[in-house]
Amino acid sequence: MTIPPTAIAVRDLSLTFQTGDGPVHALSHIDLTVEKGDFVSFIGPSGCGKTTLLRVIADLERATSGTITVNGTTPEQARLARAYGYVFQAAGLYPWRTIAANVALPLEIMGLPKAERAARVAKNLALVNLAGFENKYPWQLSGGMQQRASIARALALEPDLLLMDEPFGALDEIVRDHLNEQLLKLWAGTAKTVVFVTHSIPEAVYLSTKIVVMSPRPGRIEDVIVSDLPRERPLEIRETPEFLALAHRVREGLRAGHSYED
Question: How many angstroms separate the CA atoms of 131 and 11, rounded?
Fold first, then answer.
């Protein structure tokens, strides 16, 4: 069996923030491998370091010790090479720019020719089912549509890696379910590697090929659960014994992690 190439390799990584009240140990001795084509979710209690670990991958935070590579390079080199797209909790669209202009913004910063920008914008808005909304403004779109536009903006960079920090956390359950379905189809159609932060056990199990369960701060990896669910997943799969067994294992990992809490 061929071993897939590694997208992210984290070895004995720790991160401590220095604050006026003393050091804050955010991450402790993290070891993790993300293979190309994986859909990996980080799940854990608030403050456990899920987003901090995502930000280390993105070179938005620097580890205190240990090593990390992204596509075989340092996070800084990956960032400069625009090897990843980052989707934040809030869509972060500029209200005075149309949806097309928002998606095109990073391409303008890159200095791409106008024709190539237009082609990428059209392609990626179509991928997230927003074709026809190019000339709308963010305030004319629902919250779910705004997040889809944010995903299109990240995809417009044509990255191998998509980093997503609780992008659907503020949306209602019906919209969230719909976007989860769309995200799975998008992932299947583009073969991207996705790293996804969530607080939701059903969301983590539904989306992921691999679920990373983290303990309370200082964030440690309590369990790495490899999913044996099929790649094609209708929402109804959440009622199956296989799904419920995975959700139970995630829940047990979260409970076990609390034994570390001070």
Answer: 42
Question: To 10 degrees, what angle do helices 114-127 and 99-110 make?
Answer: 130
Average model confidence (pLDDT) across the chain: 91
Rg (CA), the chain: 18
Residues near 53 by beta carbon (within 8 Å), at least 6 away in sequence: 10, 27, 30, 42, 214, 219
Cα–Cα distance, 97 to 101 (Å, whole number): 6
165 Cβ contact list (under 8 Å, min separation 6): 51, 54, 86, 87, 88, 89, 197
Query: Which of 131, 157, 183 is a domain's end point?
Result: 157
141 and 204 belong to one structural domain: no
Instruction: Check residue 258 and give its pLDDT.
Output: 60
Longest dimension (CA), the chain: 56
Mean pLDDT of 137-141: 96
Is 1 a domain residue?
no
SS3 content of the chain, % helix, strand, coil (to 5): 40, 25, 35
Residue 140, domain extent = 90-157
> At 190, is the secondary structure helix, strand, or coil?
helix
Tokens of 254: 């979260």
Backbone angles phi, psi at 67, to 5 degrees: -130, 155
Report, as an integer, the average pLDDT of 6-12.
Answer: 96
Task: Please say whether the beta carbons of 257 and 44 come within 8 A.
Answer: yes
**CB neighbour list of residue 148: distance below 8 Å, 6 or more residues apart:** 128, 129, 130, 179, 182
